[in-house]
């Protein structure tokens, strides 16, 4: 019902905007505001110039971006033309090949950024941006936008994937406490199952990306069982995909996700997760048909309207625990800005996006997480964002980027996802891992 | 945003240049033709030149480039020999796409033609012919993407006990069955996608065939009826042979379209659950995975597979004309 209404609204909005202006996602940053221009003085004036930005974010996310940089645009005179496209990952290649590359692109995957950097399409960052990057992010984060020692971009968005969503009320009623170690997590799982509730719910349907939530699970568990070194070696293929340690991690995940006793809470047998979209997979947590749902921080936006998120509200989240209570393995993702042009106004805008000022301003507008060391957790719009930022800033945290985003695309967004789907469908761990290993490009 | 003529100036300039260039070429040709007596062959060549040029730039060169790319690696710049073609016939995902395309091409054209034919035969002489045909034609007016979304809902799955949102599972449940994951269970999910394709294509077949059936001389059927033929016999022995050329055209057109099927797969399953077809795999390889060489090789394969059908179609048309 809600979806239907939303769809209808979307169609009407699209029709109206399309007839009204022809380009629905076009920038609206021409509006005059009476901003205090002092903070923007360092970016100099670039009157009459234009910077085109191409990214994946649409609708509300796009609006929030545009609102955030509206003052920058007014003060510097740069007309920032933003275009959001849900097909970004496939279309950016066509854009660049076709000679209409945007000035700036927000890359949701370091692997994609690397492809364009290696092809010589991206411009290395300016000295100013490099300094901001060094000051704002850890070496790990900057490393994701570095190709052969050259920095090509800066992190823009960060998200924490290793979250487990749960209902505080449900946990209270069942006498469960938030687990701090993997052993405790399995104890909670068993206790919930013993009380007649399937402890875990999951949904992996996501059109052509179907399967990605499972790959996140596997990465999360590998990171916990074997640590960052083995994880890095696996992602960069220094150890084969079907290494026995990876098989072990997969089997651990399988003991939860492929186990009809533990999954799929609220949806039926474990196999049902292939038909359940990832957006709706957590809803049984609200009705008490499922105890836990492992999904990224951005799942906060996917709860039904009116769901309160907080430690004493409808749903909240805890970090998927590591082997012991002291470890903080965090799997995450992020979006990176990179430039196809090096005109002064593009440089200025890229510098602004790399500043903590931008991240803080953006956070004040609505849900947003940046891994920038300079952001203030107090600016976070939601408790989950605050938790994410605290985790990202915690020196004990061992952050690792989502492996499937770092692997070659034919594996990371291809055979790994497909393999995960087959695996949930009943294929054996060894068989799936072997076939993904065979698909790894040799060049 | 209104149309800003000043902002659009560069584009208008390009347009102007294009028109000017076109005019120049045409006048040059006319001028050349005008100058003195030319042999007919030369004149023909000159008149064909613009079309040939456009075909060369728009089809021949990209085609040759794709062919060249199919022998290169992912970046499209290093020679890779026949690697991509070997990959195509050894990789699991690519083989599944080949298998599914075969299933599509074998099943979609006959199925949509038979459905269209039966429907056309049923309504051809009815009073509500136009209305009935437009009913079946409606799916054609919907884009493939729209059709894909519609059928994705038809096949949607909800677990036992929960409210079903998919038509098919609702029917199954209403008759006391267990809901199934239609789009997940391979290989039957390929058949469910094919049903969606047939749904979009049957109308096209029906309209053409209804026209052909109307074209069968009434004297023939009347004579047969007087001779005591049943309506089944009339259909099989008179109508079918008379509309054979149209039937063939319809079948071939469907086959060519089916080879290139992409939208339905992309919208309904995204090629997951072993439902990929060549065109979709080509897109994935070239644009999502950045494997230019493999994508190009699949494009070449698709071209080779479609060519005989197109050639036959052209020859059939020439015979008819």
TrEMBL record, chain B:
Domain of life the protein comes from? Bacteria
InterPro entries per the record? ABC_transporter_permease, MetI-like, MetI-like_sf
TM spans, by residue?
12-33, 45-64, 102-124, 131-151, 190-213, 234-256, 292-311
| Chief localisation class | membrane
Keywords for the protein's UniProt record, in alphabetical order:
Cell membrane, Membrane, Transmembrane, Transmembrane helix, Transport
Sequence ranges assigned to domain ABC transmembrane type-1 in this UniProt record: 98-315
Q: Where in the cell is it found?
A: Cell membrane
What membrane topology is annotated for this entry? Multi-pass membrane protein
PANTHER family reported in the protein's UniProt record: ABC TRANSPORTER PERMEASE PROTEIN, OSMOPROTECTIVE COMPOUNDS UPTAKE PERMEASE PROTEIN GGTC
Family designation = Belongs to the binding-protein-dependent transport system permease family.
Q: What is this protein called?
A: Carbohydrate ABC transporter permease
Organism name = Streptomyces omiyaensis
């Amino acid at each position: 019902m809600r979806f239907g209404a939303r769809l209808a609204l979307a169609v009407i909005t699209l029709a109206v905007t399309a007839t009204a202006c022809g380009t629905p996602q076009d920038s609206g940053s021409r509006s005059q505001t009476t901003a205090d221009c002092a903070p923007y003085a360092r970016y100099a004036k670039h009157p009459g110039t234009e910077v085109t930005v191409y990214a994946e974010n649409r609708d509300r996310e796009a609006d929030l971006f545009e609102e955030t940089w509206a003052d920058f645009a007014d003060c510097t005179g740069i007309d920032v033309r933003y275009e959001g496209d849900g097909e970004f990952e496939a279309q950016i290649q066509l854009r660049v090949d076709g000679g209409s590359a945007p000035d700036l692109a927000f890359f949701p995957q370091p692997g994609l950024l690397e492809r364009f950097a290696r092809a010589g399409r991206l411009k290395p960052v300016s000295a100013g941006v490099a300094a901001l990057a060094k000051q704002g992010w850890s070496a790990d984060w900057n490393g994701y936008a570095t190709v052969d020692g050259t920095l090509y971009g800066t992190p823009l968005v960060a998200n924490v994937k290793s979250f487990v969503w749960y209902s505080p009320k449900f946990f209270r009623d069942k006498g469960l406490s938030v687990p701090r170690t993997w052993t405790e997590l399995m104890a909670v799982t068993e206790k919930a199952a013993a009380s007649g509730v399937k402890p875990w719910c999951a949904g992996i349907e996501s059109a052509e990306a179907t399967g990605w939530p499972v790959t996140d699970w596997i990465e999360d568990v590998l990171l916990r069982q074997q640590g960052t070194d083995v994880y890095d070696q696996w992602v960069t293929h220094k150890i084969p995909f079907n290494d026995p340690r990876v098989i072990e991690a997969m089997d651990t995940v399988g003991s939860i996700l492929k186990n009809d006793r533990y999954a799929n809470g609220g949806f039926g047998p474990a196999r049902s997760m292939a038909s359940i979209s990832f957006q709706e997979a957590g809803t049984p947590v609200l009705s008490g048909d499922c105890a836990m749902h492992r999904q990224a921080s951005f799942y906060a936006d996917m709860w039904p309207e009116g769901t309160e998120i907080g430690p004493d509200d409808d749903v909240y989240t805890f970090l998927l625990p590591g082997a012991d209570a002291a470890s903080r393995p965090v799997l995450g993702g992020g979006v990176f800005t990179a430039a196809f042009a090096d005109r002064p106004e593009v440089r200025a805008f890229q510098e602004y996006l790399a500043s903590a000022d931008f991240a803080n301003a953006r956070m004040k507008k609505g849900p947003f997480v940046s891994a920038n060391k300079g952001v203030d957790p107090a600016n976070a719009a939601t408790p989950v964002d605050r938790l994410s930022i605290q985790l990202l800033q915690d020196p004990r945290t061992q952050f690792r980027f989502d492996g499937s985003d770092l692997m070659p695309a034919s594996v990371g967004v291809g055979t790994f996802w497909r393999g995960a789907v087959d695996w949930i469908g009943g294929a054996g761990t060894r068989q799936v891992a072997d076939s993904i290993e065979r698909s790894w490009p040799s060049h | 945003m209104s149309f800003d003529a000043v902002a659009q100036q560069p584009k208008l300039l390009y347009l102007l240049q294009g028109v000017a260039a076109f005019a120049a070429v045409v006048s040059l040709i006319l001028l050349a033709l005008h100058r003195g007596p030319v042999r007919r062959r030369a004149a023909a060549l000159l008149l064909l030149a613009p079309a040939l040029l456009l075909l060369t730039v728009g089809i021949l060169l990209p085609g040759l480039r794709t062919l060249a790319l199919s022998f290169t690696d992912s970046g499209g710049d290093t020679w890779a020999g026949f690697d991509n073609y070997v990959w195509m016939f050894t990789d699991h995902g690519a083989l599944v796409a080949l298998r599914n395309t075969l299933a599509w091409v074998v099943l979609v054209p006959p199925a949509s033609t038979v459905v269209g034919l039966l429907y056309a035969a049923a309504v051809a002489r009815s009073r509500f012919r136009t209305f009935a045909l437009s009913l079946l034609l409606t799916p054609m007016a919907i884009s493939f993407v729209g059709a894909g979304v519609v059928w994705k809902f038809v096949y949607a799955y909800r677990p036992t006990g929960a409210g079903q949102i998919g038509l098919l599972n609702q029917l199954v449940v209403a008759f006391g069955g267990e809901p199934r994951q239609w789009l997940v269970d391979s290989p039957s999910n390929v058949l469910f996608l094919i049903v969606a394709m047939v749904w979009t294509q049957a109308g096209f077949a029906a309209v053409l065939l209804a026209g052909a059936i109307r074209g069968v001389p009434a004297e023939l059927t009347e004579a047969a009826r007087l001779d005591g033929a049943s309506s089944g016999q009339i259909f099989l022995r008179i109508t079918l042979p008379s509309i054979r050329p149209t039937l063939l055209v319809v079948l071939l057109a469907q086959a060519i379209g089916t080879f290139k099927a992409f939208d339905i797969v992309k919208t309904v399953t995204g090629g997951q659950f072993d439902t990929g077809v060549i065109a979709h795999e080509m897109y994935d390889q070239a644009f999502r995975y950045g494997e230019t060489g493999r994508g190009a090789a699949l494009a070449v394969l698709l071209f080779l597979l479609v060519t005989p059908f197109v050639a036959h179609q052209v020859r059939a048309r020439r015979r008819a004309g």
